[in-house]
Amino acid sequence: MSAESGLTAGRLGHRRSRRLKEKAIELVLFACAMVAVLTTVGIVFILLKESLVFFRAVPIGDFLTDTQWTPLFADAHFGIIVLLSGTLTSAAIALSIAIPMGTVLAIYLSEFAGARTREIAKPVLELLAGIPTIVFGYFALFFLTPILQQVLPWLPGFNLLSAGIVMGIMIVPYVSSISEDAMRAVPVSLREGSYALGATRLQTAVKVVVPAAFSGLAAGYILGISRAVGETMIVAVAAGMQPNLTFNPFEQAATITAYIVQVAKGDLPHGSIGYQTIFAAGLTLFLLTLCFNLLGYWLRKRFREVY
Amino acid sequence: MRRDDTAAIRAVIAAGKRKDLAFAVLGVAALVFAAATFVALFTDMLIDGGHRLKLDFFTNFASRRAENAGIVAAWVGTLTVMVVTAAIAVPIGVASGIYLEEYAPRNLFTDIIEININNLAGVPSIVYGLLALGMFVHTFGLGASVLTAGLTLALLILPIVIVSTREAIRSIPGVIREAAYALGATRWQMVKDHVLPYSMPGILTGIIIGLSRAIGETAPIVTIGAVTFIAFLPPSPITAEPPFLSFEWLSSAFTAMPIQIFNWTSRPDAAFQANASAAALVLVLMTVLMNAFAIWLRWRLRRNIKW
To answer: Testing the interface with B: which of A38, A39, A120 to mutate, by most B Cβ within 10 A?
Structure first.
């Protein structure tokens, strides 16, 4: 009897230590998951902290409306529009390539290509997406720009066009893979219905599958925009680092990202106004991409829930 | 049916088929264009820098004279930074993935963690550089060291590791979990002995893709102020005196492959451009090999496992 109760007590003790261990493990795992949350908190905190110091010296109205960006000159001007123009122009060029090409590729891979073609094409696109952006920057400056200069002899060595085109090619795999996923999620019965009514493959793709997957396609486009706006090395290498308020793709101009790289490469003392400008510029960039990311997330969630 | 009616219908069908064919050709053209970019990138770098790829290019330090310059500091730097990145991102990322799939309750807080990870994946890499500059370099006083760079890149690839861990875990059917519970396993025993081993190839794929992304990232490590001209290697981790292990290399200054490429690209001298393309070729080969390994791993996984 006593031996038996001892055994039970032992089991109960074992069970308690087991439960404690389980709780401890769960806590450790939870702490790891919190690292991602803390990263966001850290980003927001650092950007806001340094930007607040900056905006104490520079009124936010000037920051948004001034048309010059000369933070390191004696006559300092801080007009973010100047950098924004470079960012938006290069992003627009990139997207005018990435969106049509990514969409065509996605429609082709999802609706036209056979399984064998897809097996080969998807890895190739993935490899293209895996190439470091600094290498694309090199490619834009030393390969594409000379070729463009043969057609347009007056094109300067640094220009938004070449950087934008290469950036577009870089973004194609992102756009096509998200768009293709969205289209493949459209049920086959919709396609069968369309074929039964006598539609061709192209008609089915364009008039049935694309509209049904539209929010997914839009999510792909928006993530493409967010990538283009945040891309750094291609523009830093190939578009020049001269702040220039222009929407002309044939000129050189600095983007927000290129400016940050340029300043960080130099030796600006910690706490100087020049040091704080990169955080203000970074905050602008972060808010810009945050809007796009949230919109993209919302759209993607929607298309997943439809079917 | 009248004869001209049949002819009209045939014409409509033929036109539809022609349009289908035209679109298929367009799709193939887009694919070929993507592949051609990949090939052009390789050939261009091979032509410009192929002749620099000799043994002493891998064993020489950077130099003011282009023909003597090499990448030993860069590839050793990249390697050490990757060790730190992997040591931080892999355990934290995998643990977060496990928590979110196996432990997390369905509530608002979990939703916040999820949206947060999704958003982090879309934050431009240069913003991580600003976080590191403000937090690790200046607040924690870690300087532009191997540790800072490793931490920064670890935070950058954390979302990739988490998302792929979750996808790998999600693909394991619930019956496996039920069987483990039925035999009296605790939740952690079930995860450790069943879920983790079975999802290992998927997780590994994600880790490799994440690391291949980190290896090519330039913007964040330029932002933390990594030095471009380094004529020494970090101190060895193994020492002659007890305790035979030294962590001094963690606080050592460093340079990395992408930084070296960026530095050489921004010099006007053509001989340095040859160096840049040779180094870029080495970097692209590294990332392509890692990506190809990941793709192969996933392909094998999909072929072998049938639940």
So the answer is: A39
Residue A205: name the closest of A214, A220, A115 by CA: A214
Burial of A23 (0-12, 13-18, 19+ CB in 10 A): exposed
Residues of chain B positioned with their CB less than 8 A from the CB of A21: 188
Does B112 lie in the same domain as B43? no
CA distance linking residue B183 with residue B176, whole number of Å: 11
CB B203 within 8 A of CB B245: no
Same domain assignment for residues B38 and B58: no
Quick: pLDDT tens for A8-55.
777 777 788 888 999 999 999 999 999 999 999 999 999 999 899 888
If asked whether residues B41 and B65 sit together in one domain, one would say no
**B136 and B37 in a common domain:** no
Alpha carbon distance B3, B68 (integer Å): 82
C-beta atoms of B34 and A139 within 8 A: no
- Domain containing residue B251: 54-304
- Show the CA angle centred on residue A22, arms to residues A21 and A23, nearest 5°: 90
What residue in B sits closest to A279 (Cα-Cα)?
A: B130
CATH number of the structural domain spanning residue B155: 1.10.3720.10
- Boundary residue ending a domain (B12, B30, B51): B51
DSSP states of A141-160 as a string?
Answer: IIIIHHHHHHHSTT--SS-H
For B242, which DSSP code?
T
Two structure tokens written together for B115: 């949206």
- Asked if residue B60 and residue B43 are part of one domain, the reply reads no
Residue B239, min C-alpha distance to chain A (Å): 32
Domains identified in chain B, total number? 2
Of B279, B281, B306, which Cα lies nearest the Cα of B43? B281
| d(CA B240, nearest CA chain A) in Å | 36
What tens digit of pLDDT does each residue of B141-187 get?
A: 888 888 999 999 999 999 999 999 999 999 888 899 999 999 989 99
Same domain for B21 and B103, yes or no, is no
Report how far residue A250's alpha carbon sits from residue A258's, in angstroms, rounded to the nearest whole number.
17
A135/B216 CB distance under 8 A: yes
B145 and B24 fall within a common domain: no
Rounded to whole angstroms, the Cα distance separating A222 from A102 reads 13
- Residue A208: what residue type? V
pTM score: 0.88
Name beta bridge partners: B245: B238
- Alpha-carbon gap, residue B291 to A8, rounded angstroms: 55
